[in-house]
Amino acid sequence: MLNPVAAPPRLVSVSTIWLQPKTLPEALAMLAADPALTPFAGGTDLYPAQAARFAWGEALPEAILDLGALPEFWGIAADATQWRIGAGATWAQLRDAALPAEFDVLRAASCQVGGAQIQNRGTIGGNLCNASPAADGVPPLLALDAAVELASLRGTRTLPLGKFLLGNRQTERAPDELLTAVLVPHRAGDLRSGFEKLGARHYLVISIVMVAAMVRMEAGRIAEAAIAVGACSAVAQRLPALEAALRGSRPGEVAVTPGQLDHLAPIDDARATGAYRREAALVLVRRLLARLALPEALVA
C-alpha cells in the first residue's frame, strides 16, 4: 500500500494589510517606517510565490505596498541623454511602444515573456527586482547598457544594471528603496539588435537559454557590440571577449568560439543540463549574430 502524501500544515488565520500610497514620497515614507513591506506592481511573480508559501503553511506578508497608483512608476519618455522607462511599464507597453531600432531586442523579449495575460500585467521593474537567473528582461537591458533608478527618503541613486543584480533573487536594492525606473542611454548610428530564446515551447515557459545582442555598424564594420546570455549563470552575463573580437570586423568575419563563453556557469536542473545550456548558448549567439548581419531578416 502506498503511503499517503502528507497534507501541508493549515494556517489558522491570514491577515495581510494592503497599503496603496498615492504619491512616491508617501510610498517611501511607508517603506522607511516599515522596510519589511512587500512592494507590489504587476503581481505576476509575487502571487505564485505567495500561493506556494500559503499552501505549505508559511507566513504570508503582513503588509503589501501597492505601487499601482504612483504616477512616477508609469510611462516611457526620453530626454536629451536617455530613455526613462517607468518601473511599472508592462511588457505589453514595451512590446507596442514606438521605440527606436536599438530597442528591437527588448521588444522581441517582451513578446516572449509568459503569455498575453502576463505581458499585460507583468512589469519591467518587477522582473528586475525578482532577479531570477532566467528573467527575460535582463539580457536585453544589459545589451542596452541600462541602469536602474532607486529612490528612498535618503535620496535617489542610479546603478548600472550589472551592479544592481547580485545573484539568484539577490539585488542591491536596500530595504527602504524602491526601483522607480530603468534608464537606457541614447545611441546614434546604424543600430541593430535582436533576441533569441530557447524553451520547451514558444510561450508560457521559463527560458533554458536566451541571448540578446546590439551592434552598431560603421562603413560596413562592427563599431560596437554588446552581447548578453541569460539562464546560464546566477546573473545574466555579457560576453566581453567576444565583444572585443567583433569590434572593427565585418559581419561574419569573426568565428564565435566556446572559449568566448567560458565565464558562463550553467547548472543542471529540471529544464536542461549545464552542458546542454553551454552548447545551446553557443548556437544561439552564432545564430543571432548571423541574423543581425542581415537586418532585413530581423523579425521584431
UniProtKB/TrEMBL annotation:
Residues covered by the FAD-binding PCMH-type domain: 11-189
InterPro entries (alphabetical): CO_DH_flav_C (IPR005107), CO_DH_flav_C_dom_sf (IPR036683), Diverse_Substr_Oxidored (IPR051312), FAD-bd_PCMH (IPR016166), FAD-bd_PCMH-like_sf (IPR036318), FAD-bd_PCMH_sub1 (IPR016167), FAD-bd_PCMH_sub2 (IPR016169), Mopterin_DH_FAD-bd (IPR002346)
SUPFAM superfamilies: CO dehydrogenase flavoprotein C-terminal domain-like, FAD-binding/transporter-associated domain-like
Gene3D superfamilies per UniProt: 3.30.465.10, CO dehydrogenase flavoprotein, C-terminal domain (3.30.390.50), Uridine Diphospho-n-acetylenolpyruvylglucosamine Reductase, domain 2 (3.30.43.10)
Superkingdom of source: Bacteria
Keywords: FAD, Flavoprotein, Oxidoreductase
Signal peptide annotation: none
Keyword Lyase applies: no
Molecular function via GO: FAD binding; oxidoreductase activity
PANTHER family: XANTHINE DEHYDROGENASE SUBUNIT C-RELATED
Protein name per its UniProtKB record: Xanthine dehydrogenase family protein subunit M
Protein species of origin: Plastoroseomonas arctica
Lineage: Bacteria, Pseudomonadati, Pseudomonadota, Alphaproteobacteria, Acetobacterales
